[in-house]
Specification:
The chain has one domain (2-209). The longest helix has 58 residues, at 152-209. The protein contains eight helices and no strands. It is mainly α.
Amino acid sequence: MLEIVVKGGPLMYLIGFCSVLALTIFIERLFHFHRAQIDTEKFMAGIRNIIKKGKITEAISICDETPGPVAHIVKAGLLKHDDQKEEIKESIEDAGLHEVPRFEKNLVVLATIAHVTPLLGLLGTVTGMIKAFMRIQDISAKAGIVNPADLAGGIWEALVTTAAGLTVAIPAYVAYNYLVSRVDSLVLDMEKSATELVNILAARGEEYEV
């Protein structure tokens, strides 16, 4: 493996760094999503029952003890339970604006790696072929016979860097799309929970008015 890296030239070290960075981001994001994952339907059912009993403080305490963005935005809405419907919505939206970027953290880096590493591989292909043709020119200038072995270094660099770039880019692109789908799923859970909470609090307010 080390021999392949060396024959691939200096760009192999940069591609290797990109692979380590991509793997680190993917594992860190997976861990973060795992910690934030909850049974949203069960959580909201519990909150709904507690609100119906008028125990808003208890509902807020449950939100504090529950990890994830859904609990955070629900808490933001509960803190405004005595306000108008529009003010509750605004509070929830503000909380959501702070939550989503936390889950999208470093995804742009992963996307950049997925797009850049094939280009690094292509650059390695170009530099490798340049070395091969320069070798041919040097041998021809000396009226010598071109031996395939003389071109091996440049061809090695051309092929290895291309393969390495694609080997890093393909999993990075798949990982990026997977993480984006997880973010979209969380956002959908947040939107559903926010709508349900607003409706619950609005109905509660109407009962008090009656």
